């Protein structure tokens, strides 16, 4: 199956369960600040949504500024200092149980693709923690061994769905854009950004009862990451023989 296509993956909500990670972050905040778990969870989730809105409605905001402003939001919601927020984030990311936050369909799919020699990498945005913390998670979970390249918005200065971050993956990997499949859980940031960059776009929607391939749009919806293996095979047959 190894051939002419590469695969880039979003991380949060695609490979790693964001909600379970935020729940662990809430537990750390609760213990450190003497808040009830409900108070801490509410503050964390509201902060996350406000930071997402900031990124969505301020598309040109530099990723490093987004991290700073995101931390200010969470500090305000938790009524604590920025230094304490940094400390809570570090504790949360270094103590989370790796097996509890990986979706169960991820490792079987990545293992199969990796064994077939498929070139894979990640393309990730930041919010109120830097990409270095995300790399801690990828290393702790063992997911990093499957990827040859990691492209992050706070490193290159562009966030998904900006074409620049996708094209940076293509440039770094050495694959033409029309020979890269991007997989993510967000229609706009992942699929929209991928398609506008000339990639194939795959939406992972685990709540769906079926997978759909729309070859006219170079797009697909899969409900299980293991279905990506079949999509890759079909895409290879359609594209690699051209």
UniProtKB/TrEMBL annotation:
Q: Could you tell me which species this protein originates from?
A: Desulfurococcus amylolyticus DSM 16532
Q: Which InterPro entries match?
A: HAD-like_sf, HAD-SF_hydro_IA, HAD_sf, S-2-haloacid_dehalogenase
- Say if the entry is tagged with keyword DNA-binding: no
Q: Name one Pfam family in it.
A: Hydrolase
Family under the similarity heading: Belongs to the HAD-like hydrolase superfamily.
Question: What molecular functions are annotated in GO for this chain?
Answer: hydrolase activity
* Record has Hydrolase as a keyword: yes
Keywords noted in UniProt: Hydrolase
| This protein's name | Haloacid dehalogenase domain protein hydrolase
Record's NCBIfam families? Answer: HAD-SF-IA-v1
**Gene3D superfamilies on file:** 1.10.150.400, HAD superfamily/HAD-like
Stretches that traverse the bilayer: none
